[in-house]
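Sample 1 of the test manifest.
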Amino acid sequence: MIIVLKPRTTEENLNRVIKMVETKGLEAHVVRGEEMTIIGCIGDTVRIDPRLFEVDQSVDKVMHVQEPYKLANRAFHPEDTIIDVSGIPVGGGHMAMIAGPCSVESEEQVIDVAKAVKEAGANMLRGGAFKPRTSPYSFQGLGLEGLEMLCRAKEETGLPIVTELMSGEYLDIFDEKVDLIQIGARNMQNFDLLKQLGRTKRPILLKRGLNATYEEWIMSAEYIMASGNENVILCERGVRTFETYTRNTLDLQAIPVLKKMTHLPVVVDPSHAGGKWWLVDTMAKAALAAGTDGLMIEVHNNPDCALCDGGQSLKPEKYAVLLEQLRRIAPIVEKTW
Amino acid sequence: MIIVLKPRTTEENLNRVIKMVETKGLEAHVVRGEEMTIIGCIGDTVRIDPRLFEVDQSVDKVMHVQEPYKLANRAFHPEDTIIDVSGIPVGGGHMAMIAGPCSVESEEQVIDVAKAVKEAGANMLRGGAFKPRTSPYSFQGLGLEGLEMLCRAKEETGLPIVTELMSGEYLDIFDEKVDLIQIGARNMQNFDLLKQLGRTKRPILLKRGLNATYEEWIMSAEYIMASGNENVILCERGVRTFETYTRNTLDLQAIPVLKKMTHLPVVVDPSHAGGKWWLVDTMAKAALAAGTDGLMIEVHNNPDCALCDGGQSLKPEKYAVLLEQLRRIAPIVEKTW
Amino acid sequence: MIIVLKPRTTEENLNRVIKMVETKGLEAHVVRGEEMTIIGCIGDTVRIDPRLFEVDQSVDKVMHVQEPYKLANRAFHPEDTIIDVSGIPVGGGHMAMIAGPCSVESEEQVIDVAKAVKEAGANMLRGGAFKPRTSPYSFQGLGLEGLEMLCRAKEETGLPIVTELMSGEYLDIFDEKVDLIQIGARNMQNFDLLKQLGRTKRPILLKRGLNATYEEWIMSAEYIMASGNENVILCERGVRTFETYTRNTLDLQAIPVLKKMTHLPVVVDPSHAGGKWWLVDTMAKAALAAGTDGLMIEVHNNPDCALCDGGQSLKPEKYAVLLEQLRRIAPIVEKTW
Amino acid sequence: MIIVLKPRTTEENLNRVIKMVETKGLEAHVVRGEEMTIIGCIGDTVRIDPRLFEVDQSVDKVMHVQEPYKLANRAFHPEDTIIDVSGIPVGGGHMAMIAGPCSVESEEQVIDVAKAVKEAGANMLRGGAFKPRTSPYSFQGLGLEGLEMLCRAKEETGLPIVTELMSGEYLDIFDEKVDLIQIGARNMQNFDLLKQLGRTKRPILLKRGLNATYEEWIMSAEYIMASGNENVILCERGVRTFETYTRNTLDLQAIPVLKKMTHLPVVVDPSHAGGKWWLVDTMAKAALAAGTDGLMIEVHNNPDCALCDGGQSLKPEKYAVLLEQLRRIAPIVEKTW
């Protein structure tokens, strides 16, 4: 951590700040210049809130230099982590090809879609049972009944299932039945829920919050890892910007940046990012070329009747065509599934 | 809801879209022009996702015209709602003057601050017992022990207490002991938690999410109201923008806008918005002039030792001076406390 | 400037970086820690691009600690600058009360509005002659003819005039006739235009760009000052965020922050920020309470027929009522006009 | 254009609004519902500012349904436009591979880089002669002297040159010597400059403003086209968001979206977007997979000594390796150069 003092700070004030630093258990190294004086603070600064020092009358600003995360940090774990999702490896060149309807609507629907996406080449099935909806009046999902339908589709196809957990109350059931537990963008900083995830060893798919910085996103993964579950997969799904033509702005720079900061797999959800079905295939190709470890894509057998987000779902035929193209790009960027 | 068709849409396609509209239980009114044709959809469109229609090949775009909220809507409830917080009215000219430490650190600390802010003129005491922290390694609050300390401070001063609820698990205890239950910015769209709030009649202080639009914020209030608890107070605490000099950008336009859209009280938290103690008094005055129904301000008897956010806390003396100035502005904008 | 090295950097690499620093004419002070090593760079770093060092394989990140601006810097000029606009002082407690139509439409219109706002208490007249419009098909303003109409209104009322300059081509005419030359938000980083402003001594009203950080905004003022014209007034007019209900988000924290960073006056334009007439009076009061040095407000005698931005203009009567209220708040924050 | 009236609007008020619509030369079609009444306005609404109607007491909101651009509109020009840049076709499957130093520093430097990038497979040379810098104290480019050096490099290599125009003052020289005239992000809404571009027939490379919506960006292209020069190429270079780890957030969804809205070529500048050299190759591949019509990449023979943006420049060897990989992806997305 670095403390920058105000111009013309007296020795007395300088010494008071140094003492403050030392009482926090840090070593203080002073660098003096004509126009500025800085104090380099050495030690474990992870637990220290820089704003504590900003209250001092002589302090101009305080800057963190060390990353505040450890378990997720690539610096302490150089090689890619490969997560095992019920037999499907994710990371280190192995891709999660997750597809399925935004929400589970009926057993028949989810089984039909499951068979179609497996046929096309998907290796995991997604489907929403508990749906986070902006409006209390919108369809909220079929809940546990929907989860049962997903399990039936798994029996039929053998595809591991991915679905969203919105409350710790259902964690035990998810632990028993769900292969990859999704935490949605709106719960990325629901710290109470994150801490509870240590109670399961199931892999967690952590979506990026709509306005989460890379660091905040990793810190949420760190919460899960610190609670005892190190099987975390990060999922970029678009961030909120001033542009409203698309639902969100897909940030593909997140892939190379996150891979530099952490050792965890990074997958992409192009369906929610753009919110328009005709953007999905193009952005899926772009995400693959950018090195994603997986693609989560909404596929619906009858989008115009979808109870939610039909407008961003692909028909199974289109999904099959997309996977054909992805298979041609994959070897160039050394990915496989 | 309005559906805009693509240029040169055939009669056949137009009729297909009309049928789609009617199967959703809406009336379709067609407006034809040379360059565009639109369909005005009449009926209860609140439950309908516009993206459902966007999947049709002939549809260019779909626009909502009706607000998706009802209970919180000023249109159906023209006069200001006044919320009673254990005897303190909030709204309709009555202000909530909430002050206290960011986190409860000890019984002595919270009682000292409580006495000081009451002396200065505050009418409610705030203090964090459960703290949402970006890092799992930061101080997480004293929890139930901290809540007990707040209760002791209430016994000593008679000030109603305001503190944050992070999990439904503690709702019953909060229902029993907390006068105004705060839902933090990061949980604004924790829909599972919002729905549970119907189990209490205690007023809820709903903070705006860092990237929540006015409508999304109101929709979260609508969740709480629809679940059975109509005692909701909205709290603007700054939004996230590209500007990083301040922690967040305080959006004071939110006050007049929210008062036009809803009948609920709107209070402001200038301490978290700027993240700097020297911005608090200026922005508190601005918020009052903009018509806020309350001010939530961090006050700490010894900011440099605060376990969290010391950098944005005022000393009790400064808070007292600020209230003096606010008392001079209040009558001009017809506010009182 | 501070250079943070990657963990486990060798002495050899460290020395290479030190040499790089020294070849830029800076002194290098090394601070060593187990987990990180930093180099404090002393000297005039204003001209040095930190990214130059980031290319080195051993460098993790580079941080600037010195402000990159000098002439506008409060640190080197502690007292408020007061700008004289043809006899009207702006800054240091003196307010610029600027009012008038968004665009000049006719001599009669601008003279009528000028008389009305003067009567209400305005001390400067605004009116757009050259209009920056997003669409090439929108009304672009009356140009020089409009400028002449403003001059006639000035003769009639004695009010100094404020209008926007969009091109260096007209600078000489503006220098001769305009009392306060406005540079619009979209030209805030039109560096070619900024440099030319040194050719006049007329005060410049520099609007904040829609996505300009405080520092970038000050750097644009620094461009004007470095070119030879130190008479710069800053104007906050709202920034672009994810919120689209209002045209922009008015950032009133900009007032206290800019006053801390610079010695220049800061005025506010509440009309363009919200884009809605019913937000203007509330936000004008808030801006005054936040310590603004002036208010630029759109007033039109017949908003429904305005050729541009009628929706955000006040009628003269409403403007008069607003000034009455502002007169009651002004003394509390030690402002006068 | 659609006008939504407030609930319970009287016939009298409805008729007043209808009259207002008709006086603007539009046809008014009324759609009545219990909860809302809307007026569909038919006719040429491109020139009409919706805010004109919002001033009416009975109007709730006004929505545009027609795109405000014509010449750039894909609807009126279905096939891709192919721009000829001194013999190099851009668009419709043909890519502009633009490479070179951020700024021209010496004749030797620019000729060396030009030869190296041509050797690697680039088909155009970029280099900054006039540099838009945030600070008046930063290197501002070699100006006309730099332009001469670019011309020498063109003589040596035959590569068409691309460089930024910051002022209309130099338009004639650029018209004579520059093959592709770049307009920078900060001048995207310098409307005075845009209008002057009609004086040349040289193709224009229009960079997206840091906070420009797709529509605003297209409207700036429309300005150039309406002024008489239809040879416009759009360039995505990242937008400003809350994320500060990268210099900007590259918006690759812009490619498919812009291609749907307009018929103009869309190229991508991955160097400026991320601001970090190690992000360039990954994002260049992603942009190609997303269907870009070109890539503008900074290449410097000695990045650590670059006078500007060295940190985001590739060495010629790395650029050659990148082009090898791009050649393998290109046929899959039907691109060639």
